[in-house]
Amino acid sequence: MKRSDTRILTTHAGSLPRPAALTRLYAERASGAAVDEAAMAAEGRAAVAAVVARQRECGVDIVGNGEQQRESFVLYLRHRLGGLGG
């Protein structure tokens, strides 16, 4: 765990803006269109790498993935749990 005795470390919580290509893939999948899962995974990895690099450039001490690979909380659950409707 990163610690400091001289200052308060910075971080963030929650989603950060996603690249347009990843957002488009999530929107297509949410609408029921067939999406290349390998392409989505690759775009997600690239988005995480970019958002982590940007946080480091900005001086954020404790970086996060910015929820790049989670299209939304509700849809994330729908893809992982059975019995959800709506």
Which helices and strands appear, and what pairs or packs with what?
Blueprint: H1 20-30, H2 37-58, H3 73-80
Helix pairs in contact: 1-2
Question: How would you portray this structure in words?
Answer:
- This protein has one domain (20-80).
- The model has no long low-confidence stretch (mean pLDDT 88).
- The protein starts with 19 loop residues before the first helix and ends in a 6-residue tail after the last helix.
- The protein has helices at residues 20-30, 37-58, 73-80.
- The chain is built from 3 helices and no strands.
- By secondary structure, the chain is mainly alpha-helical.
- The protein is elongated and about 50 Å long.
The averaged pLDDT comes out at 88
The end-to-end span amounts to 41 Å
Order of helices and strands: HHH
SS content category: mainly alpha
How much strand content do the residues show? under 5%
Query: Any low-confidence stretches, pLDDT <50, length ≥5?
Result: none
Quickly count the helices: 3
> How many extended strands?
0
Could you give a short account of the major beta sheet?
Answer: none
Q: Measured on Cα atoms, how large is the radius of gyration?
A: 16 Å
Shape: elongated
- As for the number of domains, it is 1
Name the helicity range.
40-55%
